[in-house]
Amino acid sequence: MASTFHEFANGADLAEALADKVAKQLSAAISKKGAASIAVSGGSTPKRFFEALSGKDLDWTKVSVTLVDERFVPADSPRSNHLLVATHLLKDKAAATTFIPLYHEAATIDTAAEIATGKTASICNPFDVAILGMGGDGHTASFFPRGNHLAKALNLSTPRGVMTMAAEGAGEERLTFTFSSLSDAPLLVLHIEGQEKKDVLAKAEAGSDEKNMPIRAVLTRAVSPLEIYWAP
Ligand SMILES: O=C(O)[C@H](O)[C@@H](O)[C@H](O)[C@H](O)COP(=O)(O)O
C-alpha cells in the first residue's frame, strides 16, 4: 500500500501534529463504536509524542492502550517499554485510559505471549491506531533482521496476536504483535526522527529483502496506507 511522507521543522512540531492526528482518530472511533484502541512503540523517539498525546482532550476512559512490542522484562526495569509509556503517556488527561501490558510474569516467555494474546484479542482486530518506530538496522516492532521467528511474524496469514522474538540485535527476548495484528490499523504511522533514520528509510525503500530490513514489509505490504512522520 502507498505511503505518505510528512516532514516537520522539528520534533516538537511533529509531536504536536501527530498527537492531534491520533487524538482525532481515537475520538472518531469512540463516536463510531464506543471504544478505541492504540498500539504504540517503545524506544526513545516517541517520548515527546507521548507527552503531547497525554494532554489531548478525548474520552480516554473509552481508549485501550497497548504496546507494539515489549522487552521481556518487568515493568520496573529501565529497559521496559511499559515503564516508558507509564512515564510519558499514562498521565494528565490520558491517565484515565486502560493500559494492557504485554509482559506478564510467567514461567516462560511463550506463556507470557499466550497471556498477552488473550488479553489483547478484543482490541487488535484491528487497532484504530498503530504507531511504529524503526531501528538503525531497519527493524520495526520486534521484527529484527534474522530474528528467530521473523518469517512467521511478517506473514500476513499468521493469526493476530503476540509472539516471541529473539535476535542478535534485540538485546532481551521480545514480545511482539504480529504484522497481521498491526498492518490494517486505519491509522498506521511510522514515526522516525533524525537524518540517520531518514537514510535508513531510503535504504529500505531502495531494496526488497525483508530478512535484512524487516521495515520493508511495512513499506510494501501493509494493508493500510502508511503515514511516515519525520523531523530532522
Ligand atoms: O522496543 C523497542 O525498541 C521498539 O519498539 C522498537 O521497535 C523501536 O521503535 C525502535 O528500536 C526505534 O527505537 P528508537 O526510537 O529508540 O530509535
TrEMBL record:
Domain Glucosamine/galactosamine-6-phosphate isomerase: 12-221
Claim: Hydrolase is one of the keywords in the record: yes
GO molecular function: 6-phosphogluconolactonase activity
GO BP, sorted A to Z: carbohydrate metabolic process; pentose-phosphate shunt
Record-linked Gene3D superfamilies: 3.40.50.1360
Keyword presence, Hydrolase: yes
Keywords attached to this entry: Hydrolase
Pfam families reported for this sequence: Glucosamine_iso
Superkingdom of source: Bacteria
Pathway(s) per entry: Carbohydrate degradation; pentose phosphate pathway; D-ribulose 5-phosphate from D-glucose 6-phosphate (oxidative stage): step 2/3
Its EC number(s): 3.1.1.31
Entry's family note: Belongs to the glucosamine/galactosamine-6-phosphate isomerase family. 6-phosphogluconolactonase subfamily.
NCBIfam families to which the protein is assigned, alphabetical: pgl (TIGR01198)
Name under which the protein is recorded: 6-phosphogluconolactonase
Species this chain originates from: Aliirhizobium cellulosilyticum
